[in-house]
């Protein structure tokens, strides 16, 4: 059975049993401890990275794993790639990790580990990517530090207002009236009703 978009609709799921519930919290605590340990390792590894080559012990180990062309190792390689994409990169992107690695630059830069692309190699003036990448880095995982895109606050506000209008199916007059209310110190529907009662 599918919905209008062609996506399958879940019609049945196995019931949860008591043993699974007990394991859930035990394993959750273990996962939390493991995640903390992994995050600490990432911070230390990235902190001591070779800034000339953008490599660390983690990237070198990834290079070694991914260089294995043995057909029997392909499943392991696929699992490692999935782990990097879904878990490792998420841990690196956490606010705490970014703060430790970038310090005061955290507001204008971000750091991660990802495959080197041709635009990274071509960016010799560091217009976006910090550091230098060589042609033989192409397709390999490296520590990548890059500048954050500058936000146009006026454009962000404009886009947010459009989304708000669309979400609530209102026209611009409602937005204007709401802004007028805010200017008058009215921050809730109850305050607005109370003010109208006093006027009446």
Task: Give a topology summary.
Blueprint: H1 18-47, H2 57-66, H3 74-92, H4 95-102, E1 109-115, H5 118-122, E2 129-130, E3 141-147, H6 153-168, H7 172-183, H8 189-199
Antiparallel strand pairs: 1-3, 2-3
Protein model, in words:
- With 200 residues, the protein is mainly α.
- It folds into two domains: 18-147, no CATH class; 153-199, no CATH class.
- It is 56% helix and 8% strand.
- The protein has helices at residues 18-47, 57-66, 74-92, 95-102, 118-122, 153-168, 172-183, 189-199; strands at 109-115, 129-130, 141-147.
- Strands 1-3-2 form a three-stranded antiparallel β-sheet.
- The radius of gyration is 25 Å and the shape is extended.
- State the domain count: 2
How would you describe the oligomerization state of the chains in this entry?
Answer: single chain
Rg over alpha carbons: 25 Å
- Widest beta sheet: strand line-up: 1-3-2
> How many β-strands, per DSSP?
3
Fraction of helical residues: 55-70%
Task: Quote the beta fraction.
Answer: 5-15%
Overall 3D shape: extended
Overall mean pLDDT stands at 87
pLDDT below 50 for ≥5 consecutive residues: which ranges? none
Structural class: mainly alpha
The count of helical stretches stands at: 8
Order of helices and strands: HHHHEHEEHHH
Distance between the termini: 57 Å
Summarize the biggest pleated sheet. 3 strands, antiparallel
């Amino acid at each position: 059975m599918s919905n209008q978009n062609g996506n399958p609709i879940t019609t049945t799921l196995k019931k949860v049993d008591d043993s699974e519930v007990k394991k859930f919290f035990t394993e959750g605590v273990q996962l939390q401890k493991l995640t903390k340990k992994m995050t600490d390792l990432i911070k230390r590894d990235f902190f001591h990275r070779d800034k000339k080559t953008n490599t660390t012990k983690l990237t070198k180990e990834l290079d070694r794993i991914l260089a294995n062309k043995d057909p029997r190792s392909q499943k392991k390689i696929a699992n490692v790639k999935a782990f990097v994409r879904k878990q490792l990169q998420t841990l690196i992107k956490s606010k705490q990790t970014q703060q430790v690695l970038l310090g005061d630059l955290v507001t204008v830069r971000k750091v991660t580990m990802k495959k080197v692309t041709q635009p990274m190699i071509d960016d010799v003036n560091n217009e976006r990517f910090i550091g230098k990448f060589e042609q033989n880095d192409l397709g390999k995982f490296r520590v990548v530090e890059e500048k954050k895109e500058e936000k146009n606050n006026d454009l962000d506000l404009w886009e947010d207002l459009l989304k708000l209008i669309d979400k609530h199916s209102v026209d611009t007059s409602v937005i204007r009236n709401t802004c007028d209310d805010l200017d008058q110190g009215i921050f809730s529907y109850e305050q607005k009703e109370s003010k109208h009662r006093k006027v009446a």
